[in-house]
Amino acid sequence: MAGSTLASPSVDPAAADEAARAGAVRPAAAFSPARDAWRRFRRHRLAVVSLGVLSIIAFAVVFGPFIWRLAINDIDFAAQLKPPSLAHPFGTDDLGQDILARLISGGRISLAVGLAAMVVAVLVGVLVGATAGMSRGHIDAGLMWLADLFLSLPQLPLLLLVIYLFRDSLKSIFGPEGGVFILIVAVIGGLRWMPVARLVRAQFLSLREKEFVEAARALGASRLRLVVHHILPNALGPVIVAGTIDVANAIIAESTLSFLGLGFPPDIPTWGRVLFDAKDYLDVAPYWALFPGSAIFLAVLSINFIGDGLRDALDPRRVM
C-alpha cells in the first residue's frame, strides 16, 4: 500500500485547475450559432436528401453543357420522337432535338428565374416590412393596406395581363431572351413580396421592444443603425425560410407561363416550355412530358423540404 502510494505521480493543483479550465472553455469556444443550426438541419433527413437532390440538379444544369455537348436547337428529322436510348437518354422531340440537352439548358433559365424573382420579392418585402415595423400610425397602416390590396388581386390573370402588355416592348429593348427574363422576374417578384413584408413587419414589431434594442437606443444609435445592426439580423431566419418558398413558387409560375405560351420563345427552352411542346404528343411520346415534369416536381419538392429544414434549424425553440 505504501509502495503504491509513493509510486503514484504527484499532481500540481495549479496545472490541474488550468487543464480543467481549458477543458471547460474549449467546447464553449467551439460553439457557434451557424454550427448549431447546421446540426439541427442535419436531423431533418428529408431536408438533407433534398439538398443532395437539388445539388445534383444544380450541378447538371451548370456543368451539363460541358459534358453533354449536343446543341439544344440541332434539328434532325431522321431522329424524330425517338424513345430514350444511349444516344439520347431522354429521347427526342418532334424535331429530333435532344430532350436532355434542352432540359439542361432550360434548367439554367428556370432556376435563374426562381432565384432572381426570390431576390426581388425578398428585397421589396424586407424594405416594406421594415419600414412598416419601425413606423407608427399612417405609414404602417398605409403599407399594410397596400400589401392587403396586392394579396387580394388574382395573381395569375394579372401576371398573364402584364406579360402580354409589356412583353413585346421589352423584347425590342433587351432582346428576346433578356427582355422576357427581366419582365418575368420583375412581375413574379413584384407579386410575391407581400407575405415577406408581413412577416418582417411582425418580427420588427416584436424585436424593437427587446432589451438589447432599447439599450442601443439609449446609447444614441440612430434608427438606421438599429435596423441594420440590431433588428434585421435577428429577423433574417424567417425571411430565409420564406425566400426558399418563393423560389419554388417562382419556378412554378415561370413554368405555368411557358406552358400557356406566354413565357420564353420556343427556341429558348425552359422546363415549362419543353412541357408545353410535349402536350400534343402524350399518346405517342409520353417520355417527352415525363422528364420536364419530373424536373419541375423534384426541384420544387426539394426546395420546399429544404425550407422546412431551415425553419427547424433557424428556430432553436423547435423540438426535433
Which consecutive residue ranges, at least 5 long each, have pLDDT under 50?
1-11, 22-29
| DSSP E strands, number | 0
User: Share of helix among residues?
Assistant: over 70%
- The CATH class assignment is Mainly Alpha
Strand fraction equals: under 5%
Helix tally equals 12
Q: Provide the CATH architecture.
A: Orthogonal Bundle
Description:
- The chain has 320 residues and is an all-alpha fold.
- It has one domain (49-67, 91-314): MetI-like (MetI-like fold).
- The protein is 75% helix and 0% strand.
- The chain contains twelve helices and no strands.
- It has helices spanning 2-7, 13-30, 33-43, 45-67, 99-134, 138-152, 155-190, 194-207, 211-218, 223-259, 271-278, 286-314.
- It is globular, with a radius of gyration of 27 Å.
- It starts with a helix and ends in a 6-residue tail after the last helix.
Defining key terms:
320 residues, MetI-like fold, 12 helices, 75% helix, globular
Quick structural overview:
With 320 residues, the protein is mostly helical. The chain has helices spanning 2-7, 13-30, 33-43, 45-67, 99-134, 138-152, 155-190, 194-207, 211-218, 223-259, 271-278, 286-314.
Helix and strand arrangement:
Elements: H1 2-7, H2 13-30, H3 33-43, H4 45-67, H5 99-134, H6 138-152, H7 155-190, H8 194-207, H9 211-218, H10 223-259, H11 271-278, H12 286-314
